[in-house]
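Posting this for the archive.
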Amino acid sequence: MYPSLMPELSPPTDVLTRHAQRVAAIARREHQISMLMAQQRLDVAALALEDTPFGYRKYVGDELALALSRSP
């Protein structure tokens, strides 16, 4: 995945540097999460509206809940 911000073999950095590194990493992850969530919404909409016959669209939530092991 991503290289560790604070590898165990490197010398420890000062507090301000670690703070800045962690803030930057959190900001990057938040951006990635928002992009993935937008893509997920588009994919779910396409599944329901384009890939599922009209009579079965009401079951899309149940099908996804089973696939994701989550409660609808």
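DSSP finds two helices and no strands in the chain. Residues 36-72 form one domain.
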